[in-house]
Specification:
Elements: H1 4-16, H2 20-40, H3 47-63, H4 65-78, E1 82-86, H5 89-102, E2 107-110, H6 114-118, H7 121-127, E3 131-133, H8 139-142, E4 147-150, E5 154-156, E6 161-166, H9 170-176, E7 180-186, E8 190-191, H10 197-209, E9 216-220, E10 234-240, H11 244-248, H12 264-268, H13 270-275, H14 286-297, H15 299-307, H16 314-318, H17 325-338, H18 344-357, H19 360-365, H20 368-383, H21 397-404
Parallel strand pairs: 1-10, 2-3, 2-4, 4-7, 5-8, 7-10
Antiparallel strand pairs: 5-6, 6-9
Helix pairs in contact: 1-15, 2-10, 14-15, 14-17, 15-17
The structure holds iron/sulfur cluster (SF4).
Length: about 400
């Protein structure tokens, strides 16, 4: 079934893929990225083994989220912080609003993060008439802001800490000067132990930007202690579900929750390389977005993303935590068919196709003209105006062969 999102995706993709300037920018950026990553990866003594270990660590965490999340909460509380559980984006925004209202906060500094984009923090704060500063030309203003809002790259269960990694230094401004720090993190960001950062930080840096280690790496364990000179008076972590437990419930696809958001699969993907991130119309684009978004935001509305893949497997090959992305995209397609979400046209096509190819007699019954008409009838709309539909020969190979021998 075609949703409004899928129509928008098709139209944005068809447009973006044929803008030469867009393609040039994408090609240049990806080439630079590839160069940097190729130079950084040989720094690992045994990359394959490290990736397997990272996969295993995330597997353990995701299979034990019900125990490890309360561990994180208990340890973060011990450190003097406060934990808030949010079922969805609206709840998360509501909690942020309550914290800011209670503290009479008027200005907020915010570091770039996908999760704040996911829950629409900027728009929400503007509606509340709270000034949001998010640009590093404004550094002097950071010093006076009432609250700082960040994401979190990792939640560390055994120490009750969050880990943040960045190149600009803005996160440190957001978390050091304001009297309140609110960190928002998807529940899948959990790792079991502080020691695991020794694996995840280098994997994230190399696969994310080709650096051996990102410039600024911070571990924050609650608000400022008595003997400390900086840090917030209050620190909150909002643990966000927002559809993640729906993905967790899918045994075949829950690996999508292992993602550390390095972006490597995006840069490797032939679809993403042609259309870029905006065409996806979702917070998480590229192969990983195509895998998780149908679960987090609705199969009916977003299954088209799982279909927009060549299934070449390059995403799986480059993933530092070895998520079997292309296989899981197929699982999403399987689920959509089982839930009767494929279009009637597609259902009809496969019925006719499977009938036709089941017997030579059927294959040869229809001439090339009829076959070409059928291809046009089923595919013309989605084939786009820039490509020619495949053309079937007048006579099948079998007929031509029989005539020759
Ligand atoms: S799924 Fe993509 S973004 Fe996530 S860790 Fe793997 S390569 Fe990186």
């Amino acid at each position: 079934m075609s949703s409004a999102h899928s129509e928008e995706f098709l139209s944005a993709s068809a447009q973006k893929a044929f803008v030469p300037e867009h393609r040039q920018i994408m090609d240049y950026n990806i080439a630079q990225y590839n160069k940097a990553v190729a130079a950084a990866l040989p720094g690992f003594a045994n990359l394959e083994q490290l990736k397997r270990k990272a996969h295993l660590l995330k597997w353990k965490v995701i299979e034990n989220l019900d125990k490890l999340l309360p561990d994180f909460e208990a340890n973060f509380l011990k450190n003097g912080g406060k934990v808030i559980w949010a079922n969805d984006a609206a709840e998360a925004r509501d909690e942020i609003n309550k914290i800011l209202k209670k503290a009479n906060a008027r200005t907020v500094v915010k570091s770039k993060s996908m999760v704040t984009e996911e829950i629409g923090v900027d728009k929400f704060l503007q509606e509340q008439r709270i000034e949001v500063l998010a640009s590093d030309i404004l550094r002097e203003k950071y010093l006076q802001a009432d609250a700082g809002i960040t994401g979190a790259n990792f939640l560390i269960a055994d120490t009750g800490s969050i880990a943040l990694t960045e190149n600009e230094g803005n996160v440190r401004f957001c978390t050091t000067f304001p009297r309140i720090h609110i960190a928002i993190a998807g529940i899948e960001k959990l790792i079991a132990s502080l020691a695991d950062l020794a694996i995840f930080w280098p994997l994230l840096a190399t696969h994310g930007s080709g650096q051996q280690l990102t410039v600024y790496n911070s571990i924050l364990s609650g608000p400022r202690k008595q003997d400390e000179t900086d840090g917030p008076e209050e620190m909150y972590v909002i643990l966000l579900d927002n559809g993640r437990t729906d993905l967790l419930a899918q045994k075949d696809q829950r690996q999508g929750l292992y993602c550390i958001r390095c972006g490597a699969c995006l840069n490797a993907c032939p679809v993403y390389k042609h259309i870029g991130s905006n065409a996806f119309g979702t917070t998480y684009g590229g192969p990983i977005g195509s895998l998780i978004t149908p679960h987090q935001q609705g199969m009916e509305e977003f299954i088209h993303l799982s279909q927009a893949s060549s299934l070449c497997g390059k995403c799986t090959e480059v993933c530092p935590v070895k998520i079997d992305i292309q296989h899981m995209l197929l699982m999403n397609r399987r689920d959509a068919v089982q839930q009767n979400l494929s279009s009637k046209t597609e259902q009809w096509f496969w019925k006719i196709f499977s009938k036709m190819v089941s017997k030579r007699l059927w294959m040869d019954l229809m001439g090339g003209k009829m076959k070409n008409w059928l291809i046009g009838a089923f595919f013309k709309k989605h084939w786009g105006t820039h490509r020619k539909l495949p053309h079937v020969a007048k006579k099948s190979f079998s007929k031509q062969y029989r005539k020759k021998v």
